[in-house]
């Protein structure tokens, strides 16, 4: 990345990853044909798509974000002839462990090196309480061997951590259980599974932090409009805030209240973000976001915002590095078990480019306002770390070299071309 630049223009970032995964899963299980518009053609959501093809679901596309899924009905999936390779995608593995654990066939879920080191007991333990056996390695990681042919029992589960993946896993298993499955979360997490199930005509009841559904129903196909991913927009919300002279509009971004922590946190830091043309896209709120550069200030990030911004911390740390004063994050130990240990890897990278960043067990303390000198950072194969450091170059005096970037394609295909088209200078070296 060459240093400096400003971000101007109007762009639409790719489709929401969480919704893209769920559109394939629910479309496959529905009765009828589901047409998806705005599907994310990234490696993670494509891994989910391929998994359902391997289970006999006919899926056309994606082509320019259009996907057509010929639903097989709630009991229509077929045993795949091979293990399902879910690549880097934690969402695929955790949601499918619940959904496929309840089928009448055996299946094995595998992933890449990063996914094979992420904790899976958070799903296998409650699934065992539902009577579904999922074998892990001794350390509780993938490969996951799901033994089919067991009917899940409905449970009431109090989640020990705020995780939409765990919640969704159990609700999807609950579709096949006799009776009512309820999941209680310690703090609100993204509710796309609940909203999309309702969109497919399935009754999901939520009462504050408790979500319930009764098994044995059916899903009816719908047309879905997947908005742009706020987690991808986040790189530009920060980039345009920190690069002076910027004025950038991000179109059709999903602003579900369980996802807007990044807007709330940046505004508290002094960012100038306008939410324009708010509208509804098939049960999900969307808007255009206009962001102009602003002098940011360091803050104590409110802990209740953490689950609402959980994927945005790599780039929020870059915002903190550019802010006046200290920024302190606590209550975010989940960041240690993402695609990489995002606390350690970001602290190492920030230090390598001249920033005082001190990792703590559950967060980080960053002294903002110093010169970003540039240097060499290792993204550890984590897409969001690589993109966060690309954004840091907007305020760097020297160039930033980022290693191990191929996984940017898991969530944001075309990132390099897009940033170059609006005023940055990113060069890919293979
Ligand atoms: C996701 C939930 C979050 C998030 C991930 C996508 C989802 O994970 O980090 O990128 O689609 O449900 P957790 O629920 O484990 O926090």
Automatic annotation (TrEMBL):
Gene3D superfamilies: Enolpyruvate transferase domain (3.65.10.10). The keyword Cytoplasm applies. Its EC number is 2.5.1.19. HAMAP family: EPSP_synth (MF_00210). GO terms for biological process: amino acid biosynthetic process; aromatic amino acid family biosynthetic process; chorismate biosynthetic process. Catalyzes the transfer of the enolpyruvyl moiety of phosphoenolpyruvate (PEP) to the 5-hydroxyl of shikimate-3-phosphate (S3P) to produce enolpyruvyl shikimate-3-phosphate and inorganic phosphate. This is 3-phosphoshikimate 1-carboxyvinyltransferase. The keyword Transcription does not apply. NCBIfam families: aroA. GO terms for cellular component: cytoplasm. One of its GO terms (molecular function) is 3-phosphoshikimate 1-carboxyvinyltransferase activity. Its main location: cytoplasm. Monomer. Pathway: Metabolic intermediate biosynthesis; chorismate biosynthesis; chorismate from D-erythrose 4-phosphate and phosphoenolpyruvate: step 6/7. Belongs to the EPSP synthase family. 3-phosphoshikimate binds at residues 17-18, 22, 163, 165, 311, 338. It is found in: Cytoplasm. Keywords: Amino-acid biosynthesis, Aromatic amino acid biosynthesis, Cytoplasm, Transferase.
């Amino acid at each position: 990345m060459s240093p400096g630049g400003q971000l101007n223009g109007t762009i639409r970032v790719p489709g929401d990853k969480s919704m893209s995964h769920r559109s394939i899963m629910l479309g496959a299980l529905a009765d009828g044909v589901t047409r998806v518009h705005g599907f994310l053609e990234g490696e993670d959501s494509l891994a989910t798509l391929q998994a359902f093809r391997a289970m006999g679901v006919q899926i056309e596309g994606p082509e320019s974000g259009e996907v057509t899924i010929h639903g097989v009905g709630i009991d229509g999936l077929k045993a795949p002839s091979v293990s399902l390779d879910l690549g880097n995608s934690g969402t695929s593995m955790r949601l499918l462990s619940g959904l496929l654990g309840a089928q009448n066939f055996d299946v094995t879920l595998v992933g890449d090196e990063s996914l094979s080191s992420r904790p899976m007991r958070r799903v296998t333990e409650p699934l065992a309480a539902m009577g579904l056996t999922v074998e892990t390695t001794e350390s509780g990681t993938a490969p996951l061997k799901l033994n089919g042919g067991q009917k899940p029992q409905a449970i009431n589960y109090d989640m020990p951590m705020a995780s939409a993946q765990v919640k969704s896993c159990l609700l999807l298993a609950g579709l096949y259980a006799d009776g009512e499955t309820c999941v209680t979360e310690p703090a609100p997490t993204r509710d796309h599974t609940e909203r999309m199930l309702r969109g497919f005509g399935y009754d999901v009841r939520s009462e504050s932090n408790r979500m319930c559904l009764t098994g044995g129903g059916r899903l009816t196909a719908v047309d879905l409009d997947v908005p742009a991913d706020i987690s991808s927009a986040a790189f530009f919300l920060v980039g345009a805030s920190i690069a002076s002279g910027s004025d950038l509009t991000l179109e059709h971004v999903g602003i579900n209240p369980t996802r807007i922590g990044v807007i709330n946190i940046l505004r508290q830091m002094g960012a100038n973000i306008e939410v324009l043309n708010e509208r509804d896209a098939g049960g999900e709120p969307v808007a255009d976001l206009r962001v102009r550069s602003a002098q940011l200030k360091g803050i104590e990030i409110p802990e209740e915002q953490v689950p609402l911004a959980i994927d945005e911390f790599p780039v929020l740390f870059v915002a903190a590095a550019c802010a006046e004063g200290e920024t302190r994050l606590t209550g975010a130990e989940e960041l240690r078990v993402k695609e990489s240990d995002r606390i350690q890897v970001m602290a190492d990278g920030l230090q390598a480019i001249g920033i005082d960043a001190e990792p703590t067990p559950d967060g980080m303390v960053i002294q903002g306002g110093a010169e970003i000198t540039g240097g060499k950072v290792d993204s550890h194969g984590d897409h969001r770390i690589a993109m966060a450091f690309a954004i840091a170059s907007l305020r760097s005096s020297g160039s930033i070299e980022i290693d191990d970037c191929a996984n940017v394609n898991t969530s944001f295909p075309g990132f390099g071309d897009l940033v170059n088209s609006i005023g940055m200078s990113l060069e890919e070296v293979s």
